[in-house]
Specification:
Strand order of the largest sheet: 1-2-6-5-4-3-7-8
Strand content: 5-15%
CATH superfamily of the largest domain: IlvD/EDD C-terminal domain-like
CATH architecture of the largest domain: 3-Layer(bba) Sandwich
CATH topology of the largest domain: Glucose Oxidase, domain 1
Distance between the termini: 28 Å
Number of strands: 8
Helix content: 25-40%
Number of helices: 11
Largest sheet: 8 strands, mixed
Structural class: alpha/beta
CATH class of the largest domain: Alpha Beta
Oligomer: single chain
Length: about 350
């Protein structure tokens, strides 16, 4: 259930792909027929002046959030959905993703949370089967088919996602809880802080690094403005701890993680380090406390002490051109890491009058 598969599922859920097409394998002969039908459908929609925005209302995004929770999708989809909604003039609070996950359990037994793979989901009926399970019905074929599980027998009791706030993440952060170690969703330990990816790679295997299984690994400087928000969040566990049997540690970052990643990683911390967010003022040895169940992420340092520290921010080397425009206009993760000049202020801010239509 990587990001590409997740976003295909989101596209189908929002009505931008034909039913059953999102999880088809590359080369599937059925895809040829679906492609032809999609082309015909697009021409018809254009002829009828049906605009994409007609499929992107608040209820539609709510439905997408529920499906995202049910499939245990990539955390990257949260950013993408926030960005798409922003183009529509709609704001999706991070807490709404947490609420959707709290009310909808993980129903799809696909890695990294489960054991199956995407072809298994395709054989079970794909997105229509997931929607049927969410509605409490059997699959379109008349019976629940693995890896789509019934609503009363979810894959895990942990929600797909949890959202946390606190003095380390005033604007919020996200955890793929169902892919985390339950024991680490409540954890307190000393921070080991890396203020760049290069520093992390340089220090992570240093024999003198003061790190134990209880340490909290922090990678800052990886947010949308600082580094373009790459998938660096799954910080490697030091080899000497791995050899001692440590398989997971609490990790925190303002970057992202692959949808296929596994582990207890707090992602998309906002505001990011590059704009002076709290991670830029975190230091080795600061005691960090996570209670994902309570929705909190904090450092046990008095606010006046924390913000009196000089922030460590990424070095700026580009002084003109596109990189400067990017830094000036890219938004933070809860707004989708989109450019502010591409967002609509409200749904009415779109440059056309929406026709009155029903769903096609």
């Amino acid at each position: 259930m990587g990001t590409a598969s997740t976003m295909a599922i989101m596209a189908e859920t929002l009505g931008f792909m034909l039913p059953g097409s999102a999880v088809r394998a590359s080369g599937d002969p059925v895809s040829m027929a679906l492609a032809a039908e999609a082309g015909q459908r697009v021409v018809g929609l254009v002829r009828d002046e049906v605009r994409p925005s007609s499929l992107l209302g608040v209820p539609d995004f709510g439905r997408a959030q529920r499906v995202l929770a049910a499939v245990g999708g990539s955390t990257n989809a949260i950013i993408h959905l926030c960005a798409i909604a922003g183009r529509r003039g709609i704001r999706l609070p991070l807490r709404s993703f947490g609420s959707a996950s709290a009310s909808v359990p993980v129903l799809v037994d696909v890695a990294p949370i489960g054991t199956g793979l995407m072809p298994d989901l395709a054989r079970a009926g794909g997105v229509p089967a997931v929607l049927a399970a969410l509605d409490g019905f059997d699959t379109p074929d008349g019976a629940s088919v693995w890896p789509v599980l019934p609503l009363d027998k979810p894959l895990t009791r942990l929600p797909a996602f949890m959202v946390v706030h606190g003095n380390l993440a005033p604007s919020g952060a996200v955890i793929k809880a169902a892919a985390a170690s339950p024991r680490l969703l409540r954890h307190r330990g000393p921070a080991v802080v890396f203020h760049s990816y290069a520093e992390m790679r340089r220090r992570i295997e240093d024999p003198s690094l003061d790190v134990t299984a209880d340490s909290v690994l922090v990678l800052a400087g990886c947010g949308p403005r600082g580094a373009g928000m790459p998938e660096w969040g799954n910080i490697p566990i030091p080899a000497r701890l791995l050899s001692a049997g440590v398989t997971d540690m609490l990790r925190i970052t303002d970057g992202r993680m692959s949808g296929t990643g596994y582990g207890t990683v707090v992602l998309h911390v906002a505001p990011e380090s590059a704009i002076g967010g709290p991670l830029s003022r975190l230091r080795d040895g600061d005691v960090v406390s996570l209670d994902a169940y309570a929705g909190t992420l904090s450092v046990e340092v008095p606010s006046d002490v924390l913000f009196a520290r000089e922030p460590v921010v990424p070095e700026v080397t580009d002084l003109r051109g596109w990189p400067v425009l990017h830094r000036q206009h890219v938004t933070q993760a809860p707004e989708g890491c989109d450019y502010d000049f591409l967002q609509a202020r409200t749904p009415a801010h779109l440059p056309f009058t929406e026709p009155t239509i029903g769903r096609s």
